[in-house]
Every structure is written in C-alpha cells, then in structure tokens.
Specification:
Layout: H1 33-44, H2 47-58, H3 63-81, H4 87-91, H5 95-98, H6 100-103, H7 109-142, H8 148-168, H9 170-195, H10 215-232, H11 237-241, H12 250-263, H13 265-275, H14 284-291, H15 294-326, H16 332-353, H17 356-384, H18 391-394, E1 401-402, H19 414-430, E2 432-433, E3 437-438, H20 451-469, E4 472-473, E5 487-488, E6 496-497, H21 503-510
Parallel strand pairs: 4-5
Antiparallel strand pairs: 1-6, 2-3
C-alpha cells in the first residue's frame, strides 16, 4: 500500500488487525475524531459504568447528593483525561509507547503497568456485571437455579466473546462501539418509562447511612470512584487516536473526548437513580432485574451484554497491544489471550471467593491514584515540548535498538520517574478506599480523601522542579525550542542495534 496520505487504506471489519505498537503510517490512518467519540462513549455506555454510578447511593448519599458527586467526579476526571487523546495523532502509536518521550523508552513500562491495572479492573467489571445480568434473567424468566457453577460458565462464555472481538482488532471494535452508542442509549432511556412509577426523587437514607460516618468524606469518596471511569481511559486513548491523521485539529480531538465523557452521564444517572430502588439489596444487578417489569428485564439483558462486550474489548485491546511490546515473545493476539485469562481468574476469585464490590472499589482507587499523576506528567511534557515528538525514536527499544532522542539514561528519563513514583506512593498513603486501601494518613483532613490533590500536586511540582534543576537536552524539544523551561546543549545518541536484544525484538527490527 502507498504511504500517500491522500490514499487511506480502510481495513475490512472481519480482517484481523496487523498493526501492533508500531507507528501507524499515514496511509492507514482511517479514523476521525468522531470515531474517538464513538469508541469512548461506546466503552462507557455500559453496565460497568452503571455499577460505578450506583456507588454514591450504596455509600449512603441521598439521591441529589449522589447526582452532585457523580457530576463532580466526571467533570474533574474528564479535565485530566482530555489531553491524553492528543498523543496518538502526533506519535502514531499508543500512549504507553508515547510516554517514552517523558519517561524514557524503557521507563515507559510505567504506562504499560497502568494499562494492565486498568484492563484487569474494567474487563472484570464488564464480564462480571454482564454475566450476572444473564444469570438473573435465566433465574427469573427461565426458572434456572442460581449457582456459582452457572455464573462461572456464563462469565467464561462472555469473556471468550470479548477476546474474539479483540483478536480481530480496531475496526471490529469500532463497529461494536458504534452499535452500543445508539443501542444502549435508547435502551437505558427506556428505563425512564420502566421505573417511572417506582422512583423516589426525594430518596434520602439520612446521615446515619454515610459509609464513612459523615457527609464530606463519603461525598469525596463517591466522586473519586466516579472519576475512575474517565481516568481509566487515560492509558488507552492513544490506542484509538493513533489512527487519526497527524493533521487533525487538537480542538476536535479534545472536543471528542469531552463530548464522549459528558455523554456517559446517561449510564451514570441510570445507575444513580435505579440504585435507590434496590439500595437495601446485596446484589444490584439481580435485584434490578427482579424489580423491573418483565418486558424491561429482557431488555436489561441486551444492555448488559452489549455494554459488557464494549467495555471488555476497549480495556483488553489496549493492554494486549502494549504488552506485545513489553514481552516480545507475545504478539498482540497472544498478549490479549494472556491478559484475558489473567483477568478471568481475577473475576472468579473476586466474585466467587471475596467481596467483588470491595475489590472493584480498591482497583478503581488504585487506578485514580496512580494514573492521574502519570497523566499530569504527560500533559506537562506535551506542553513544554510544544507537542513535538520523534516517531522513530519512540520505537527504538521495541525494535531491539538503543539510542535516539529518548534514550536519556540507559532508556530511562529519571525526571518523569522521580516525579511519578513519589506522587503515586504519597497518594496511596493518603487514600481511603475501605476496606482494602486505607492509607496511614487517610484521616489527615478529617476523614476526607485528599489522595488525589496530594498525588497531582506532588507530580506537577516534582516534574517541573526536575525540568528546571536538570534541563533536558535541547534536541527533544524540536526546532522551536522549549516552552517555559530551560534546555541544555547535548549531542543526541546515535541509534544502534542492541546485540543483547531478544530474537523477537530483533525480528521486529528486521521485518
């Protein structure tokens, strides 16, 4: 195929994607910002998001307090998320690899770790919730007895379907999300009709119901859990925006993310309002199916299935993509199978052996605390570099080479690492996601969780401090030079073959 940008190669939906984390050539960049909107909204317009929307109610907030916490968490999370869509068009690769510009081509393993954490959490939520909806329908409509074996079988079937879609890749995933955008939105809005006679708009369990003992700690915890949804896309936006041409207007890319996340208020509010109907029930999904009119109980299965498929593939696709480069023996398909299997084990252990809600709460908390400072460092780096990136130099480690603009100190840029590591640790020390994550300083602000401002503030201050104390080489900034920070003169290391590289990375270099 030609690399002429005017001739765009659009793959067939049933064609297995061939690209891994290599730079997408201009002739293959067939996506538009509207596709970034569709894939984000499709991935969020699901029962996994609905479940996160139920947390403010389950933690003891009143209906309108829960609405306020949900809107707050969503807006704050979106503000941090939006810039992460800009890296794909500029670098032609995913965000984990692009982060090599600020963490070093080896140090970008931080982004790979964060994508793994996010994928396991949200793949697990999607399969768990979808599976429970199917089980609930079978119990209510077909009289099938509930059992752990039944749930395990249903989880396995749904998880396998997700993996099949992921193996086909981006084009197939985009088709699924286009369907979910329209289908699930319509089905959720029908919930207004289905539950209109049961909703209590004055729902308020009273101050004694606050999970953390008082209003503000519970409100902040609720907002942080909601915030986990937009933040969870941070490591993955580049997986999809890398197919957008480099000349796309940044404002349109930013706008696509803002619009998609704001549209996710549909599933969030579905979760908030319907949670008031079953707040005293142990299993939200099963209880909601039993509460719904029979005609809508059937539709809920469709909502759960489509949503679980969409969330599962958006989470699993990116991690399989990235780990195929971290572990060169695993191509994208094999890496997806490995991560999918790992996540399935987490589902079984978390759902059948432990408290799944507590597990989800802890995972979402860890995602917010660890990913947000990484995103802050990436955004500051993009700003001071004026959006300048050298595509080829980002790939040297993946190709079994060393050197180039982003080699820094043996492949690690300690400026970014020295900011992220303390910020993530400090955030965990102040975190309060009971019962699994309870930092020793969680009561420093009277029980209010301040882990996020601590981790964000520390990451920003440390990273900017490192850029001023230890200026980066001038060659990383491009022809216009740095913005607001100093630079030092240095000779860029030549790109040379790494003779200690594995045969798989060498194969990438020579293929």
């Amino acid at each position: 195929m030609t690399d002429n940008p005017a001739v765009i190669a659009r793959p067939k939906v049933t064609e297995v994607e061939q690209h891994g984390i290599d730079t997408i050539p201009a002739s293959h960049r067939h996506s538009r910002p509207i596709d970034l909107f569709r894939i984000q909204f499709g991935g969020a317009n699901t029962f996994a998001t609905v479940i996160l929307g139920t947390f403010p109610i389950l933690l003891g907030l009143s209906l309108w307090q829960a609405v306020a916490a949900t809107v707050t968490g969503l807006l704050v999370g979106t503000l941090f998320l939006a810039p992460m869509g800009l890296f794909g068009p500029l670098t032609g690769t995913n965000n984990a690899v692009a982060s090599g510009a600020h963490f070093g081509v080896r140090g970008r393993i931080v982004g790979s770790f964060l994508s793994l954490l996010t994928a396991i959490a949200f793949y697990s939520i999607s399969v768990w919730v979808s599976g429970d909806a199917v089980v609930g329908a079978l119990v209510r409509l077909a009289g099938v007895p509930d059992s752990d074996l039944l749930r395990a079988v249903v989880y396995a079937v749904l998880g396998a379907i997700v993996i099949v879609v992921v193996i086909y890749g981006y084009a197939f995933m985009l088709l699924v999300n286009k369907i979910v955008v329209f289908g699930n939105t319509a089905l959720m809005l029908l919930g207004i009709l289905a539950f209109s006679g049961s909703l209590d708009l004055g729902y308020d369990p009273g101050p004694g119901a606050y999970a953390l003992g008082s209003f503000w700690p519970t409100f902040v915890l609720s907002a942080l859990i909601v915030m986990g949804n937009p933040i969870s896309f941070g490591a993955f936006l580049g997986d999809w925006s890398r197919y957008i041409p480099a000349g796309a207007k940044p404002s349109r890319v930013l706008g696509a993310t803002f619009a998609a996340q704001l549209a996710s208020l549909v599933p969030f509010m579905f979760g908030v309002f319907t949670a008031t109907l079953v707040a005293d029930q142990a299993d939200y999904v099963i209880a909601l199916i039993n509460t719904a009119p029979a005609w809508y109980a059937v539709l809920l299965i469709v909502v759960a299935f489509l949503g679980g498929l969409s969330t599962g593939i958006t989470a699993l696709y990116g991690t399989g993509l990235d780990f195929s480069s971290v572990f060169p023996r695993l191509n994208r398909v094999k890496a997806s199978l490995f991560i999918g299997t790992l996540a399935f084990v987490f589902i079984l252990v978390g759902r059948l052996a432990f408290d799944m809600l507590a597990s989800v709460n802890a995972f979402v908390g860890a995602i917010v605390i660890c990913t947000t400072p990484w995103m802050v460092i990436m955004t500051i780096g993009w700003f001071v570099r004026r959006g300048h990136y050298r595509e080829a130099d980002l790939q040297v480690f993946n190709q079994g080479r060393e050197g180039g603009a982003y080699w820094f100190d043996k492949g690690v840029n300690w400026r970014g690492m020295a900011a992220w590591i303390p910020a993530a640790i400090a955030g965990l020390l102040f975190a309060n996601y009971p019962p699994l994550i309870e930092g020793p300083f969680r009561n420093a602000a009277g029980g209010v969780d301040i882990s996020l401002p601590v981790s964000i503030g520390l990451a920003a201050v440390l990273y900017l401090g490192m850029l001023f104390l230890f200026p980066e080489p001038r060659y990383v900034f491009g022809p216009d030079g740095p913005r607001l920070v100093p630079a030092r003169d240095a000779e860029m290391p030549a790109v040379v073959d790494d003779h200690t590289a594995s045969e798989h990375r060498v194969k990438t270099r020579t293929s």
